[in-house]
Automatic annotation (TrEMBL):
Pathway info: Cofactor biosynthesis; (R)-pantothenate biosynthesis; (R)-pantothenate from (R)-pantoate and beta-alanine: step 1/1
Localization of this protein: Cytoplasm
SUPFAM superfamilies documented for this protein: Nucleotidylyl transferase (SSF52374)
Classification of source organism: unclassified sequences, metagenomes, ecological metagenomes
Predominant subcellular localization, coarse grouping: cytoplasm
Single GO MF annotation: pantoate-beta-alanine ligase activity
Entries under InterPro entries matching the protein: Pantoate_ligase (IPR003721), Pantoate_ligase_C (IPR042176), Rossmann-like_a/b/a_fold (IPR014729)
Name by which UniProt lists this protein: pantoate--beta-alanine ligase (AMP-forming)
Species of origin: freshwater metagenome
């Protein structure tokens, strides 16, 4: 008889007992773009089997009309999945994920509180709930998430750790268009003029990182510089620019630890987010 006293030992024992193949999992809401393709490639490269899920999750939308307007491009998505040799595409029906009478939610941890959590109440509760349901069903070895949704990645890492899921969460670098705009399913909703202005988000982030690399340690100075630049960009309305610690997304008063600059802006009805990781200046 074996006595095990820690969750990770239990996981280790189960792995060796079951043997078997590793499963790389890429959860998505469809409308696949090059950013998702990079996740699929990495999952493929690092695992025996790749599973892609496509499910537009109603519980993570604050506004019903956003849920309804979310692009659904299933046939195209399936062609992309095929192209990347995905082994299984999991596309559950909404009433199988949320059947009549269903009421259990996963309450996310502290990583859900700042930034997006302030402007989109309940969003991460919906994300944590659906990701838990998908994890329980797919039972992946590794799950892949883009760093563009930096806070989502932090919320899921915290959830996996606090709920003792036996899953490695892999954060993958943001994929960008040639002009720097982060790939996002929302970009197609930008007008031509907005699309040509939107790269200013990444430009402002890179300039801010350069400022920090050159020795600036004041978050206020960095944020003010970014604000001036973005305020001058036609049609761009800033929702927030924040500099937070990478580990727990808490606001900092001096840039003296690995941090991340997070930004959310609007172009009319289209909300875009992006971020850049920064290191404290070398002394
Ligand atoms: O990032 C997304 O596409 C979604 O939030 C996710 C993780 C698939 C949950 O619905």
């Amino acid at each position: 008889m074996i006595v095990i006293t820690a969750p990770e030992q239990m996981h280790e024992w189960l792995h060796s007992y079951r043997g078997g193949k590793s499963i790389g999992f890429v959860p998505t809401m469809g409308a696949l773009h090059a950013g998702h393709e990079v996740l699929l490639q990495q999952a493929q490269h690092e695992n025996d089997i790749t599973v892609l899920s496509i499910f537009v999750n109603p519980t993570q939308f604050n506004v019903q009309s956003d849920f309804e307007a979310y692009p659904r491009t299933t046939e195209r998505d399936l062609r992309i999945a095929e192209h990347h040799d995905v082994d299984v595409v999991y596309m559950p029906e909404t009433d199988r994920m949320y059947p009549e009478g269903w009421r259990i939610f996963i309450e996310p941890g502290t990583a859900a509180d700042p930034l997006e959590g302030l402007g989109r109440p309940g969003h991460f509760r919906g994300v944590a709930t659906i990701v838990t349901k998908l994890f329980n069903t797919v039972q992946p070895t590794r799950a892949y998430f883009g760093k563009k949704d930096y806070q989502q990645l932090a919320v899921i890492r915290q959830m996996v750790s606090e709920l003792n899921f036996d899953i490695s969460v892999v954060g993958v670098e943001t994929v960008r268009h040639d002009d720097g705009l982060a790939m996002s399913s929302r970009n197609i909703r930008l007008s031509d003029v907005q699309r040509s202005t939107a790269p200013v988000i990444h430009q402002a982030l890179v300039s801010a990182k350069n400022l920090v690399d050159a020795g600036e340690t004041s978050p206020d100075v960095v944020i003010n510089t970014m604000t001036s630049r973005l305020a001058a960009a036609d049609g761009c309305r800033i929702e927030y620019i924040e500099i937070v610690r990478q580990t727990d997304l808490q606001t900092i008063s001096t840039i003296n630890c690995p941090s991340v600059i997070c930004i959310a802006v609007w172009f009319d009805e289209v909300r875009l987010i992006d971020n850049i990781e920064i290191e404290p200046p070398q002394r």
